[in-house]
Subtilisin-like serine protease
Amino acid sequence: MSSHDRRRFLTVLGTGIGAGVLGTGTIAAADSEGRTDRFLIDLSYVSRSDVPADVEIVHDISEVGLLAARGDPDSVPGAASTIPDVAVYQDEVADLAMEAPGPHAASHNHDGPATITELQWDKRVQDVADLTDKPGEGRTVHETTRGKGSRIAVVDSGVYDGHPDLQGVVNADLSANFTTDQYDWRPNGAGDHGTHVAGTIAATNANDGPNGGALGTAPDSEIVALRVFSGVEGVTGDVLAALVDAANKGCDAANISLGYPPLPETTPGVPALKAAYEAVAEYARSEGMVIVNSAGNDGQDMDEEGIISLPTEVEGIFGVSATGPIGFGWGHKHADNEEKWLSGNRLQEPTTTPAFYTNYGSAVDVSAGGGNADTDGPETYYRDLVLSTISIQGEDGSLVPGYGWKAGTSMAAPQVAGAVALVRSLRPDASAAEVEELIQETAAMPADGETYHGAGHLDLRELVKRAR
């Protein structure tokens, strides 16, 4: 096998990981128009009035003493006043797409195709709701709260609000495009990564098709879509500006399923980049917002000396590692009884197993379901990935709703962002620190220990029980 054969997995499924490590030179990135003259201005070193008029201010982030700019950085006074604006990447390992009405199971309690929610192992194992045709006993999370009154920012590639499970979920007035392209906050060629993330948080299962729809952790929460990816790569300044904007708009959490390759700490520009995220994290917490970040997909020990994984290792950012099962609904033992697909005598590896790709170490606050895979298994191995809402581009260029499996710490982070929504719906006055502490205190510790799980694995039932 191999569930840990990363090279084979990426070859089979494709990858969303950004290629290239920054190395020993300075770091820079192209913006959405392909230009490479983006940089950040640190207002602690230079007055805004001293910034030349021919330098374009792309984003005013003066709440944290920064400006995102475009032009000639050498024209700005002060050697330490500018740093390059660095490329960011989505923390997605693999994806498989399927148009609505969605996936089918070869055998399923002898009652026909599985519904989409019955294939959402991440929601079922957390007892989010009764998601099988033979519901078990015990109180579900949604009997306590569905996240009403909470607001979550998805800082990503945009959200396709035409999906039946996301209609009425996205606040169009507060959503915004932070790239320099001419489009709005919807995907617009940027891919369906953000739509998948949004569905994990807040999909409503409103699709009335024969296979139903997908269900999110907090379907009564509100999504604010802040797009930072376009047809090209994302840029740090856009992300920082979006996070500050999310805090200013009263978001309870901002989900950033993005990051950078592991970097030598001595790489020019890295200390300043870390400081920029620290300032944004401090500002967000002062406004009551939790920043939830995917830990990264490099299989990296983030405690390795001399290497830093950003922004996960930034103080004040809540880092989430990924776990996933091996064997969910594969079609062997108990293939005719989907109730048993998640039972211990069915799975080769439980849903709390650290995913083969996940970063780990002391920067992890908790773990959550992000998907796993054994590509040497049967053709249904992809069911161990996370199933959620996506958009598919039709032949005429228009988007149509669909459902797809993705894996990555990108898929784990929104599980926790949805958990923040649940807590804030019950405790609207809780501080960001109090919300984070409650998530950590109620997490359950798997046998792998804190190296992979931080304070433990997300436990929604215990969380809402304690938050009531």
